[in-house]
Amino acid sequence: MKIAFIGLGNMGAPMAANLAAVGHDVVGFDQADVSVDGVTMATTGAKAASEAEAVITMLPNGQILRAVADEIIPAMAHGTVLIDCSTVDVDSARSVAQQALDAGLLAVDAPVSGGIGGAAAGTLTFMAGGSDTAFAKAAPLFDIMGQKAVHCGEAGAGQAAKICNNMILGVTMIATCEAFALADKLGLDRQKMFDVVSTSSGYSWTMNAYCPAPGVGPRSPADNGYQPGFAAELMLKDLRLSQQAADSADADTPMGQAATALYEKFVETEGGLGKDFSAMLPRFEERNRS
Ligand code: NAD
């Protein structure tokens, strides 16, 4: 299959390389000067998109996605599919999908979870929104780049699933970290805390699989000086998208709102930038109640 891949950064480059590695003809474009194993580079996004049966985008945000869509959609052939794997706001995802449909294309919003490691290993999870026909066309590509793809509903449903999941993740990480900090002050051993919580009703993915306490639980970024992993600023991006969506859907999300404010402070003024999002634990450790 002839595939165009636009946005070859930390995530896009290994995803494109995996498609090329199984024999697809991949043409890439990025505004930065990059090269990717097995991928032929084009001089513009429109040139890359013009001969492709599928165009995949992996870009930083909704504004950039809209600008790229304006350029590539007119260049794409009727009946081909536009698959956006970036994490963007639901409104941008829906608007780009509509623009693609109006131009006679198929469209899927398909943000991912699994991070850079998952992109390199081809083990991402895709959360997809779009028609059955569009999803069916994209599914074989998801199978190469990932291990699981869930068709969540119509356009925007993939982004909706992603930000709801990550809102839970951000809130839960904070709850897990503040509970560890409280346990410390109560003189409770961290290993004992893990042994109890990980098998009791307070258990969660953040406690059981990604424990923020160094030396406790399975190996995680906490055991590597809080090098990301999943950086705090990326968590902040997703939390902000959740609050943007909550505003436009008129949903009451007080915990999501509190988590957004806390990660904002952590990233912007408390040295959290560039650290894993589980570095909330040392942040709480250093503080007291007032
Ligand atoms: P990145 O910044 O490494 O890559 C983005 C790429 O897009 C860059 O190479 C940049 O040069 C390129 N780009 C920007 N504007 C462009 C334009 N107008 N035309 C062509 N190329 C352009 O970011 P990333 O970490 O690869 O993340 C990409 C997306 O995936 C984001 O939406 C992010 O939220 C999401 N995501 C990232 C992770 C992660 O762990 N990094 C995990 C899940 C989802």
| Helix content bin | 40-55%
Structural class, by secondary structure, is alpha/beta
- Count of helix runs: 12
Whole-number mean pLDDT:
97
First-to-last CA distance: 60 Å
N-to-C series of helices and strands: EHEEHEHEHEEHEHEHHHHHH
The main β sheet shows up as:
6 strands, parallel
Strand arrangement within the widest β-sheet reads: 3-2-1-4-5-6
Strand content: 5-15%
The distinct bound ligands, ions and cofactors come out as:
nicotinamide-adenine-dinucleotide
Shape descriptor: elongated
The poorly predicted ranges are none
Total DSSP E strands: 9
Query: What integer value in Å does the Rg equal?
Result: 20 Å
Relevant terms:
290 residues, alpha/beta, 6-stranded parallel beta sheet, 3-stranded mixed beta sheet, 14% strand, binds nicotinamide-adenine-dinucleotide
